[in-house]
């Protein structure tokens, strides 16, 4: 049985860690790497850094934050937002990222998925998908941090992305993001049943038990959590214990 990975997601605007609801109404939480270090000390398996306004400005601004984190944090880091080319990916990987997550640029230029997978390996190429439900068992792909419709069907897009080289999917439900209502397990299951690469469920985790539900019903490989950690409504120690009590395989970790 593979381990379920526990991932802290850090959405960033400028120098600040932020949090919104449905990817809107962004509220400043604090200094990103203060929170990253706290989650690392609690045994987080991975971190996701997402530049939420990168699409507006056409570039990723997280280089210095990621470089500083890499000095003290030794778990895989995925960085997304504003990565539009091989050169952009190269730069953020040199700063210390292990993987790049691409959404808007991949929709605009799907060949970028293949180009990054060929240059750095598919394990480095995370296809980030922002999904919004538009009907029964139907979801549409959005870009630009949930602001722009694409007309793309999520299931068709994720299958195409995997065929083109994506090695992992970061699947964010816009409908659930920041709501604390739990993950959109129907969406997650619809995606995991169609592909054979790891899927990270993101958006909606309101309590530790939500992780158990999406792992069992959605068959995910990892969960990304933000609100529940940033607002201290739970911590990774309790979340890990909940997963273990439910019989889910997670990486053993003891706080020194």
UniProtKB/TrEMBL annotation:
Keywords: Amino-acid biosynthesis, Histidine biosynthesis, Lyase. One of its GO terms (molecular function) is lyase activity. It catalyses: 5-[(5-phospho-1-deoxy-D-ribulos-1-ylimino)methylamino]-1-(5-phospho-beta-D-ribosyl)imidazole-4-carboxamide + L-glutamine = D-erythro-1-(imidazol-4-yl)glycerol 3-phosphate + 5-amino-1-(5-phospho-beta-D-ribosyl)imidazole-4-carboxamide + L-glutamate + H(+). The keyword DNA damage does not apply. InterPro entries: Aldolase_TIM (IPR013785), His_biosynth (IPR006062), HisF (IPR004651), IGPS_HisA/HisF (IPR050064), RibuloseP-bd_barrel (IPR011060). Pathway: Amino-acid biosynthesis; L-histidine biosynthesis; L-histidine from 5-phospho-alpha-D-ribose 1-diphosphate: step 5/9. The keyword Lipoprotein does not apply. Pfam families: His_biosynth. It is an enzyme of class 4 (lyase). GO terms for biological process: L-histidine biosynthetic process. Its EC number is 4.3.2.10. Heterodimer of HisH and HisF. This is imidazole glycerol-phosphate synthase. It comes from Lacunisphaera limnophila. The lineage of its organism: Bacteria, Pseudomonadati, Verrucomicrobiota, Opitutia, Opitutales.
């Amino acid at each position: 049985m593979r381990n379920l990975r526990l991932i802290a997601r850090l959405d960033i605007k400028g120098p600040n860690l932020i949090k919104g609801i449905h990817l809107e109404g962004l509220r400043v939480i604090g200094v990103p790497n203060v929170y990253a270090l706290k989650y690392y000390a609690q045994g987080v398996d991975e971190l996701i850094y997402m530049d939420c306004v990168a699409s507006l400005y056409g570039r990723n601004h997280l280089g210095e934050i990621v470089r500083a984190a890499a000095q003290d944090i030794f778990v895989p880091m995925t960085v997304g937002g504003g990565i539009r080319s091989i050169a952009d990916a190269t730069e953020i990987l040199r700063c210390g990222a292990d993987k790049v997550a691409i959404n808007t640029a991949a929709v605009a230029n799907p060949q970028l998925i293949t180009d990054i997978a060929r240059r750095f390996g598919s394990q480095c190429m995370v296809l980030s998908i922002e999904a919004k439900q538009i009907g029964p068992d139907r979801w549409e792909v959005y870009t630009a941090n949930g602001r722009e419709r694409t007309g793309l069907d999520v299931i068709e897009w994720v299958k195409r992305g995997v065929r083109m080289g994506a090695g992992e999917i970061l699947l964010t439900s816009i409908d659930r993001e920041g709501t604390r209502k739990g993950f959109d397990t129907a969406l997650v299951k619809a995606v995991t049943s169609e592909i054979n690469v790891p899927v990270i469920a993101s958006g909606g985790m309101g309590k530790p038990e939500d992780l158990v539900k999406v792992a069992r019903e959605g068959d995910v490989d990892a969960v990304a959590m933000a609100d529940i950690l940033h607002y201290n409504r739970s911590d990774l120690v309790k979340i890990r214990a909940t997963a273990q009590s439910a019989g889910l395989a997670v990486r053993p970790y003891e706080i020194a």
